[in-house]
Write a structure and sequence with these properties.
- Among the domains are: about 200 residues, Rossmann fold, CATH 3.40.50.1100; about 30 residues.
- The chain is globular, with a radius of gyration of 22 Å.
- The strands form three sheets. Strands 4-5-13-10-11-12 form a six-stranded mixed sheet, with helices on both faces. Strands 8-7-6-9 form a four-stranded parallel sheet.
- The longest helix is centred in the C-terminal third of the chain and has 23 residues.
- The termini are far apart.
- It has 15 helices and 13 strands.
- It is of the alpha/beta class and about 425 residues long.
- Bound molecules: pyridoxal-5'-phosphate (PLP).
- The site of pyridoxal-5'-phosphate has 16 residues, from helix 10.
Length: about 425
Amino acid sequence: MTQVIQSPNLTTIPTFKALKCKECSAEYELQAIHVCEFCFGPLEVSYDYDALRRHVTRESIQAGPNSIWRYKSFLPVATDNPIDVGTGMTPLVRSNRLARRLGLKKLYIKNDAVNMPTLSFKDRVVSVALTRARELGFTTVSCASTGNLANSTAAIAAYAGLDCCVFIPADLEAGKVLGTLIYSPTVMAVQGNYDQVNRLCCEVANTYGWGFVNINLRPYYSEGSKTLGYEVAEQLGWQLPDHIVAPLASGSLFTKIYKGFQEFIKVGLIADKKVRFSGAQADGCSPIAQAFREGRDFVKPVKPSTIAKSIAIGNPADGIYALDVARKTGGNIESVSDAEIIEGIKLLAETEGIFTETAGGTTIAVLKKLVEAGKIDPEETTVAYITGNGLKTQEAVQGYIGEPLTIEAKLDSFERALERSRTLERLDWQQVLV
Ligand SMILES: *Cc1c(COP(=O)(O)O)cnc(C)c1O
């Protein structure tokens, strides 16, 4: 694609140059393609880092909008009017009570449970993918989703006035289905797991000329995850942490946080530093964790069975790249049981007031496991990425939390109930003590 440089103002100079194969380095024009014709490797967007080094400063970023689009020069869109629904710049919370509970000195929570508009990190990747889809002339957008992606694609397509048809596995949580239907897209609930949904979507993408955010638009889509790296660096005062823990589904998010950190170093926005990357999966779908444990450099597909449905991808597209990042940075990839995931959700809620979904419970449970195994040092500045909201996966914790005390609208009824609950609490404690 030929882009004309119109003025020395960076906002009109596209800094993204080509699509490049991650395996054989073959280059392609910036179209809606995602696989190398020669070796079938995945394509990735490449940039003019010299131009970025010359034009981007901390100040120019801070003068930008309070959203992911403050990093527009590092994203693969040419327009000056990206689809900006306030996505990104979510809180980086310094943890006190969870940190103390785990014995960590400096723990931060990157809280994408409150990302806009649909309360998961997927709003980042979709904002970028749909902006690019519009530039490439697509009028219908689509995706193969584990839930959150369908929410984001439907919501942001509604805002942008694009037609939308999403594909989900038929057994998703009610909150994820409702949270898609409300935007009135066409929703295909496929009888099968995510990997089967994805296979079907590859066929549809080839014949219908739609923009599938995570298939033919995947090289653009995945770049959106880099903003989770940029924001943490900026929010830590233009510094990198020592260790990050993030969930792995396809592995894309994990590798793009790494790319984001590397790019900021490369263009001189932050000092070079080694950051350890640790990944989190659920035991019931842990193909990348298994490969890590067994020292393999290939990933064997599995059939998912876990409550952590948003990260239940049995055949992860970026699995080998996630393995590489964890190994070369001295990190780990661990998995935890569904029971530990529920405990992780409750632990984060009780200590930090953040209600995350199963993917976040997985991250917290793996964080705990790595600390207990001595694989995260208490002195390390550690960032745990919380990528989704617990209100969407209420089924997961049903039966594992308390119940309200139903009372009459009378003071004595309240007092009796309070006394009962205090007695129960004491009994609980006695049981803990014996
Ligand atoms: C999609 C998703 C992920 C991981 O995504 P990948 O980039 O495919 O690894 C993590 N957390 C949540 C909540 C998600 O929806």
